[in-house]
C-alpha cells in the first residue's frame, strides 16, 4: 500500500502538466530564443503598460495588510500550537530567508542598479545631469526603494497564508488549499490544479533564469580574478558544479544542507560588508546610507504609486513594476519555503522578520557597495557606471578593481554567489517537491532530484541559446492572474484568522469562567 501511495503522489496532474509546459518552453527557448524573447516582451509590455497601476496598488495594499495583521490583536497568534516554539534560532532563520529569497539578486544588483540610475537618472527629476552629486543621491534612494520592503511584501503575505493554513488549520502545503474558506474544502479540481501548476511553472522558470544570469556574473568574476575565459563552455561547467553541490545539499535534507549553507551565506555577506565598509570611504558610505534612508522614507508613499504616464518614459515599467511582477511570480516558491521554516513564530514575528529584516540587510549592502562605487566615480574619476552600462554582470568586479584587496574580495564574492545559488536551487527543489506531491512536507529525493535536474538542464539550454531573458520575461506574465489569486487568498486568510481568533477567545473565556466557578466552589466547600 505504501508503494501505491508514493506512486500516486508522483503521478498527478500538477506534476505532469507543469513538467510538459516547462519542457515546451525549454524547447522553444532552445530552438527559437529570439522569437520567445520577442513574444514574451510584447505580452509583458502590454501587461506592464496597461496594468502597471494595478501592480503598484496591489503590492502597496499587501504591505498595509501585512502590517495590519502584525500590529493588530492577531499579531500574537502563533503559527502552530500556542505552546509551539521556533525550531530555528533567529540568525539561522534570517539566513535561510535571505538565501532562499533574493540574496543572489542583491549581490548582482547591489552595484549595478545604483550605478545604472547614476549614469541614467530616473525621469522624475527633470534637469538632473548624469554623474552629478544630485544624480548620485537620486540613484541611491531609488535603489533602496526598488529593493526595500515592497520586494518582500508578496513573499511575506504568501508565506504567512501558507504557514497559517498548514500550522493552524492543518491543511496541505499547497497554494490552492489557502483558498478553502472561499471555494470550499472539496471539489473545484480544475481550478486547484491550475493554481498549483502556475505556481510550479513560475518557480522553475524563475529559478532557472536566475541560475543562468548569475552564472554569467560568476563567469565575469572568474575572468576578472583568475583570467578565466568567458564563454559557454565555462558557463556550462559552472552550472554542472552548482548542480552537483545543490543535489548533495538536497539529499542532505533541510536541517543539514540548506541550514548550514545559509549560515555560511549570511556570515560571508556580513564579512564582505564589514571589510568594504572599512577599506572603502567609510564616512561617505555611512552618510550615503543615512541620507538614502531618509529620502526613502520621505518618498515612500509617493514612490509607491508613481507611474510617469504624463511622459513617454518607461522607467516605472522597467524597474518597480518589473520587480513587483517578479516577486509575485516568485511568491509561491519563496513563500512556501519561508512557511516550511517558520513554525512556532508569531504572526508579528513572521511579518517583521520576513518583510523588514532581509530588505534592511539588502539596503545596507547597496549602501556600502553602491555608495563606494558612486564615491569612486564622483571623486576619483573612475568609469564604473560606464562599465555597468556595457555589461551589468561586471558591476561588482569593476568596483573591486578600484579597492585594496580587490582580488580577495572578488574571490569571496564568487564564493558567496555560488553558495547563494546552491541554496536557492536547493530550496527550490524542496518546494517543487512539495508542490507536485500533493503537499507532502517531506518530498522524496527522487522527485527533488527530477526537479533539480530539470532546472540545471533548462539553465544550460538557455545559456547556449541565449534565451534566458525571454524565459524570465515569460515567467512574469503569470504574475497578473496570480495576483488575482492572491487577492482571494487575502480574503480567505482574514476570514479564517478572525474566525479562529473568535473561537480561541471564546474557549479561553469558558476556561476562565470554569476556573473561577471551581475556585468559588472550593471556597464554599471549605467554608462549609
UniProtKB/TrEMBL annotation:
This is Choline/carnitine/betaine transport. The chain crosses the membrane at residues 12-31, 51-69, 90-112, 149-167, 198-216, 236-254, 266-286, 321-339, 351-374, 408-433, 445-468, 474-497. It comes from the Bacteria. It is found in: Cell membrane. It comes from Salimicrobium album. It holds the Pfam family BCCT. It is a multi-pass membrane protein. The keyword Transmembrane applies.
Amino acid at each position: 500500500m505504501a508503494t501505491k501511495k508514493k506512486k500516486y503522489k508522483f503521478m498527478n496532474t500538477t506534476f505532469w502538466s507543469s513538467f510538459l509546459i516547462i519542457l515546451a518552453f525549454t524547447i522553444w527557448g532552445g530552438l527559437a530564443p529570439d522569437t520567445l524573447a520577442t513574444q514574451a516582451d510584447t505580452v509583458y509590455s502590454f501587461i506592464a503598460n496597461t496594468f502597471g497601476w494595478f501592480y503598484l496598488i496591489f503590492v502597496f495594499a499587501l504591505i498595509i495588510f501585512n502590517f495590519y495583521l502584525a500590529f493588530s490583536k492577531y499579531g500574537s497568534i502563533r503559527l502552530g500550537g500556542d505552546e509551539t516554539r521556533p525550531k530555528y534560532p533567529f540568525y539561522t532563520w534570517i539566513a535561510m530567508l535571505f538565501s532562499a529569497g533574493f540574496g543572489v539578486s542583491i549581490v548582482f544588483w547591489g552595484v549595478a542598479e545604483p550605478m545604472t540610475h547614476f549614469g541614467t537618472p530616473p525621469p522624475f527629476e527633470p534637469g538632473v545631469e548624469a554623474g552629478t552629486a544630485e544624480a548620485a543621491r537620486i540613484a541611491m534612494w531609488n535603489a533602496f526603494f526598488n529593493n526595500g520592503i515592497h520586494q518582500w511584501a508578496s513573499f511575506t503575505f504568501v508565506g504567512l497564508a501558507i504557514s497559517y493554513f498548514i500550522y493552524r488549520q492543518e491543511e496541505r502545503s499547497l497554494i490552492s488549499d489557502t483558498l478553502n474558506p472561499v471555494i470550499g474544502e472539496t471539489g473545484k479540481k480544475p481550478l486547484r490544479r491550475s493554481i498549483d501548476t502556475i505556481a510550479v511553472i513560475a518557480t522553475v522558470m524563475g529559478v532557472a533564469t536566475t541560475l543562468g544570469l548569475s552564472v554569467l556574473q560568476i563567469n565575469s568574476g572568474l575572468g576578472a580574478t583568475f583570467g578565466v575565459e568567458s564563454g559557454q563552455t565555462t558557463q556550462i561547467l559552472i552550472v554542472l558544479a552548482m548542480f552537483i553541490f545543490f543535489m548533495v545539499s538536497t539529499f542532505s535534507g533541510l536541517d543539514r544542507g540548506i541550514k548550514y549553507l545559509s549560515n555560511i551565506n549570511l556570515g560571508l555577506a556580513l564579512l564582505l560588508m564589514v571589510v568594504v565598509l572599512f577599506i572603502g570611504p567609510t564616512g561617505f558610505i555611512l552618510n550615503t546610507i543615512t541620507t538614502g534612508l531618509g529620502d526613502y522614507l520621505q518618498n515612500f508613499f509617493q514612490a509607491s504609486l508613481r507611474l510617469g504616464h504624463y511622459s513617454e518614459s518607461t522607467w516605472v515599467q522597467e524597474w518597480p513594476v518589473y520587480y513587483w511582477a517578479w516577486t509575485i511570480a516568485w511568491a509561491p516558491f519563496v513563500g512556501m519555503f519561508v512557511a516550511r521554516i517558520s513554525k512556532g513564530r508569531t504572526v508579528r514575528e513572521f511579518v517583521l522578520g520576513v518583510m523588514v529584516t532581509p530588505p534592511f540587510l539588502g539596503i545596507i549592502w547597496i549602501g556600502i557597495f553602491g555608495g563606494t562605487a558612486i564615491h569612486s566615480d564622483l571623486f576619483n574619476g573612475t568609469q564604473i557606471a560606464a562599465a555597468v552600462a556595457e555589461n551589468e554582470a561586471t558591476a561588482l568586479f569593476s568596483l573591486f578593481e578600484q579597492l585594496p584587496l580587490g582580488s580577495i574580495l572578488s574571490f569571496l564574492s564568487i564564493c558567496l554567489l555560488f553558495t547563494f545559488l546552491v541554496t536557492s536551487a536547493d530550496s527550490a527543489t524542496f518546494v517543487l517537491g512539495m508542490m507536485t506531491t500533493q503537499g507532502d512536507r517531506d518530498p522524496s529525493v527522487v522527485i527533488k532530484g527530477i526537479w533539480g535536474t530539470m532546472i540545471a538542464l533548462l539553465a544550460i539550454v538557455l545559456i547556449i541559446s541565449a534565451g534566458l531573458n525571454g524565459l524570465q520575461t515569460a515567467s512574469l506574465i503569470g504574475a497578473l492572474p496570480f495576483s488575482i489569486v492572491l487577492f482571494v487568498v487575502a480574503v480567505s486568510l482574514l476570514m479564517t484568522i478572525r474566525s479562529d481568533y473568535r473561537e480561541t477567545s471564546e474557549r479561553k473565556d469558558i476556561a476562565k469562567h470554569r476556573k473561577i466557578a471551581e475556585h468559588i466552589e472550593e471556597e464554599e466547600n471549605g467554608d462549609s
